[in-house]
């Protein structure tokens, strides 16, 4: 069978071209609509953010002015006075937590018969805790060392150090001891008997 076009004007399949041109036009229109919608959305968002930024900057300026006014109205002497009062109150609270009865009971359980306590000076230090300076008199150095060992065993005394050990006029030894007293360990720790 012969397939030729006998028409005077040849027939081209224009429908396929028109179809694909229509599809391309629809895709381009869709993408354009999407881009326009995004531009409008971002434009509104940008406007809203600029307004909020301007509001925040105005608020920050207002707060800076208020802070400057407050700083100007503060009297440094009053602040120093209140700070000193607060330190004094904290020291009083720290002293109140120090129990002489508990400390003396602890000494009673650790003190050998040949050692006498002459003086005890507590000092509350914010960084190091309760510092004790203890003056003792003993018959010999071994008794002082026994007392030091007994104190350390309790756990209530940390870093027990003997600074001065020298004989006195009666033939006994005077010693100055320094230690950190930890009352919480004193309550929890066991007692060491006299040796």
Question: Can you give a write-up of this model?
Answer:
The chain has 195 residues and is of the alpha+beta class. It folds into 2 domains: 14-74; 99-188, Gyrase A, domain 2. Helix content is 58%, strand content 21%. It has 5 helices and 4 strands. The protein has helices at residues 14-73, 76-97, 100-110, 141-154, 183-188, and strands at 115-125, 129-138, 157-167, 173-181. A 4-stranded antiparallel beta sheet has the order 1-2-4-3. Strand 1 (115-125) and strand 2 (129-138) form a beta hairpin. The longest helix is centred in the first third of the chain and has 60 residues, at 14-73. The protein is elongated, with a radius of gyration of 45 Å.
Features:
195 residues; alpha+beta; Gyrase A, domain 2; 2 domains; four-stranded antiparallel sheet; 58% helix; disordered C terminus
Helical run tally? 5
Helix/strand-derived category reads alpha+beta
- SSE string, helix = H, strand = E? HHHEEHEEH
Task: Extract low-pLDDT stretches.
Answer: 186-195
Q: What percentage of residues falls in helices of 4 or more residues?
A: 55-70%
End-to-end CA span: 133 Å
Strand content: 15-25%
Radius of gyration: 45 Å
- The CATH architecture of the largest domain can be given as 2-Layer Sandwich
Just give the CATH class of the largest domain. Answer: Alpha Beta
* Annotated CATH topology of the largest domain: Gyrase A, domain 2
């Amino acid at each position: 069978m012969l397939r030729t076009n006998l028409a005077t004007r040849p027939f081209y399949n224009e429908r396929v071209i028109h179809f694909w041109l229509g599809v391309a036009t629809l895709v381009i229109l869709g993408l354009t609509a999407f881009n326009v919608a995004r531009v409008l959305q971002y434009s509104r968002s940008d406007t809203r953010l600029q307004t909020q930024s301007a509001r925040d900057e105005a608020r920050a300026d207002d707060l800076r002015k208020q802070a400057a006014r407050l700083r100007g109205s503060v009297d440094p002497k009053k602040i120093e006075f209140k700070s000193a009062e607060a330190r004094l109150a904290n020291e009083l609270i720290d002293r109140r937590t120090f129990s002489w009865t508990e400390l003396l009971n602890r000494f009673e359980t650790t003190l050998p018969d040949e050692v006498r306590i002459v003086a005890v000076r507590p000092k509350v230090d914010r960084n190091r805790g309760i510092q004790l300076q203890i003056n003792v008199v003993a018959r010999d150095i071994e008794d002082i060392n026994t007392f030091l060992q007994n104190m350390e065993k309790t756990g209530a005394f940390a870093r027990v150090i003997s600074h001065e050990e020298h004989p006195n006029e009666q033939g006994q030894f005077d010693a100055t001891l320094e230690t950190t007293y930890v009352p919480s360990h004193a309550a929890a720790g066991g007692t060491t008997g006299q040796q």
